[in-house]
Amino acid sequence: MNCLTCFLGGSSPTGFRSHFGNMIADTDFHTYIIKGGPGTGKSSLMKRLADAFPDDRKEIYHCSSDPDSLDAVVFTDRKVIFVDGTPPHVFEPEYPGAVQQIIDLGAYWDIGRLKNSKNEIISANSAYLQHHARCRRCITALSAVIGDTCQIGISALNKEKLDGFIYRTAKKLLPKRTDNAAGKIEFRQLSALTPQGYLTNIPYDYTIYLLNDNLYAGAELFLRKFSDIAVSKGFRVSISVCTLYGNESFEHMLIPEIKTAFITADPINDITIAAKQPVNFKRFYDKSVISGKKMRLKFNASAAKDLRDEAVISLKNAKTDHDSLERLYIPAVDFDGVNRLCYDLISRIKSLG
Fold first, then answer.
1. Could you tell me if 160 and 33 lie in one domain?
2. Distance from C-alpha of 281 to C-alpha of 234, rounded to nearest angstrom
3. What residue numbers bound the domain in which 291 lies?
4. How would you class 63 by CB atoms within 10 Å of its CB: exposed for 0-12, middle for 13-18, buried for 19 or more?
5. Model pTM?
6. What long-range pairs does 307-311 form, CB within 8 A, spacing at least 24?
7. Taking Cα atoms as reference points, which of 257, 252, 89, 268 lies closest to residue 173?
8. Do 227 and 188 belong together in one domain?
9. Of 121, 69, 281, which Cα lies nearest the Cα of 61?
């Protein structure tokens, strides 16, 4: 598989959250930061660039506000990144020209035409922002409910039993290395809240271990400790966090060198997939503690799903307003000019090997 599919980031109680800035800061890559309003062709440009190199190793980053659109493409071997640098994920060059440079699709606008649509643009953008603000309020409440359930899980967790399982699993799955490789943790957003629900990109050419945990705490601790062990043994580990928490929580983990994925299934993501080894985390919790919190946990589970669904509705409404903005911008864009730019960028990429 030459392509990893993920999200650039996701909605959180404080707005959009992403670790992609770490990639832009990597001076081994040259990053093109694309600027321009809705409907100016940022996503289409990146799709065409990705399609022009079908055999290249790539990472494709979808937009959580519109999963059919792209937010970034990373050409892994050629060390080139293209990323949407407009709100809510604003990126600016740290080393302009030398490491990062801006592509301004606003240069292809008919400004006069956009001025004629000023009132409609302002109205649609205002409604768009209001829906995202409501989404954040829902996620803030959701984060509190999940946090309460997680605290119950922590209080009931048999950490000694879980630690034994972690170390046995690591011994079984992580081969000894002889190359003295330096392990590291990097972040790839596999899951995000979207207008289509809470979606997860699962690499199906990996061996999947499904971590079933209704209380969140055990699976999160498993991923943190297992990732530390893997890194200490020289493996590169990709962590996907759940942005819906106030404090980021480890949700999934990929170990590319052994094609192994640990995917958490919980009440928020509702993941049901075939796995090599489903792990039921009930066995790591004290049943008596859980039993004493039964009604509270039942309330939390129901409230969390309702709040998640309300946040999704807000994102759907925001997308409707964003689509209205795109319809106002598209007629004002010189797409012939954008096409010429695309051909020039393809030539630049080809020159890199």
1. no
2. 27
3. 134-301
4. buried
5. 0.94
6. 307/138, 307/139, 307/141, 307/142, 307/145, 308/138, 308/142, 308/193, 308/198, 308/244, 308/268, 310/138, 311/11, 311/135, 311/138, 311/139, 311/142, 311/193
7. 257
8. yes
9. 69
Element holding 186 (H helix, E strand): strand 184-187
Q: What is the distance between the alpha carbons of residues 129 and 134, in angstroms, rounded to a whole number? A: 9
Query: How many CB atoms are closer than 10 A to CB 160?
Result: 8
State the Cα angle at 293 between 277 and 250, rounded to 5°.
40
Tokens of 283: 């066995």
* Domain presence at residue 285: yes
Structure tokens at 353: 């090997």
Please name which of 144, 53, 36, 129 lies closest in space to residue 90, comparing C-alpha atoms: 36
Task: Looking at the structure, tell me whether residues 146 and 290 fall in a common domain.
Answer: yes
Give the DSSP H/E element, type plus range, for residue 21. Answer: helix 21-24
**CA 172 to the chain's CA centroid:** 29
In a domain, 119, yes or no: no
Q: Would you state the structure tokens that stand for residue 82, as one six-digit string?
A: 């293209």
Chunked in runs of 10, what are the mean pLDDT values of the chain (353 residues)?
Answer: 88 94 95 95 96 94 96 96 95 95 95 96 97 97 96 97 98 90 94 96 91 97 98 96 90 96 94 85 96 96 97 98 96 96 93 74
Q: 151 and 90 in one domain?
A: no
Q: Which of 208, 309, 209, 194 is nearest to 243 (CA)?
A: 194
Residue 121 located in a structural domain = no
Number of domains in the chain: 2
pLDDT in tens, 156-180: 999 999 999 999 999 999 998 888 8
Q: What is the mean pLDDT of the chain?
A: 95
pLDDT in tens, 213-237: 999 999 999 999 999 999 999 999 9
